[in-house]
User: Fold this.
Amino acid sequence: MFTGIVEAVGTLSAIMRKSDDAHVRIAAGGLDLSDVGLGDSIAVDGVCLTVSALVADGFEVDLSGETLARSTLGRRRIGDRVNLEKALALGQRLGGHLVSGHVDGVGRVRGREEEGRSVILTFEAPRQLTRYIAEKGSISVDGVSLTVNRVDGTRFSVNLIPHTLETTTLGMLRTGDDVNLEVDMVARYLERLIAGDSAGGRGLRELLGRYRFARER
Assistant:
């Protein structure tokens, strides 16, 4: 489990393709690996990966064919920079929102607008994800926890403050770039609960319907 608060920006230093999967070495930048061991999880651009080796300047991971197909990591090249976050430990502050590191889909940058010292980015999300994206809700973009400012059909916008621009890769995004998206997991489980025929699901639908948040079936 992660928080979407990026701890460091790393660099892909080696990519070894192996038929349908890949083995990748990542230079960890400023990420503290002193408490990381083999088998631990690190989010790389929002993708939860398992450390298979520790090297002098970073770590290595294996990417399955599924990961390569369902995220932007299959399109990355040596020298590309990536957002890094170690798994959340019990007792740590939850500064962002709960992020699983399981990418739901790939979105695309559709607009970039400077506003004061901040930048407004507009993304287009896969249509099947749009029902989980709400104004003032949370979303993970390349592993960064962000607040949705506006939703318009399949598009949504976020505001990047100077700190986010300086400490993540999002400041380098341009129109046409692809990003990993993970929607708020609470929204997904809530939808499943509401759609179910259990007593809890019926009770929740009734409660939400009472306050006009949902229609009773």
